[in-house]
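Dear support,

I submitted the protein below through the web form. The confirmation email said the job was done, but the results page showed an empty box. After a refresh the structure appeared. I'm attaching both so you can tell me whether what I see now is the final result or a partial one.
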Amino acid sequence: MAFNYVSIGKRIFYARTKRGLTQAKLAEATGLSTVFISNLETGDKCASLESFVSIANALNYSADELLIDNLTNTVKASNHAFAGLLSDCSEFEKRLLYDILCSAKQSVRENRCFLSK
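What the results page shows now:
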């Protein structure tokens, strides 16, 4: 399986901007160059394992969160992503989203036969 470096770069970009970091600040925190961070985010370059771990640590993200599009077993990362989506929701919003998700799940299962065609 080939790695999708573009998706990894997009996740690094998302994590960096969510943390309010510039490319320069992330580069400073990791000891990498700003140009290299930019090339990672566009998928033009790939990081060594050491650099990748340094980036994940600086962003306070787990490796599986950044690699989720390249992994086949993503339950833990998905659960963390769901928890993150709900973290700033009110109780009302959580109940409403839960009801919507339950309805969507039921609809997907009832209409699965149409997806296989």
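Response: this is the final, complete result; the empty box was a page-load delay. The mean pLDDT is 89.
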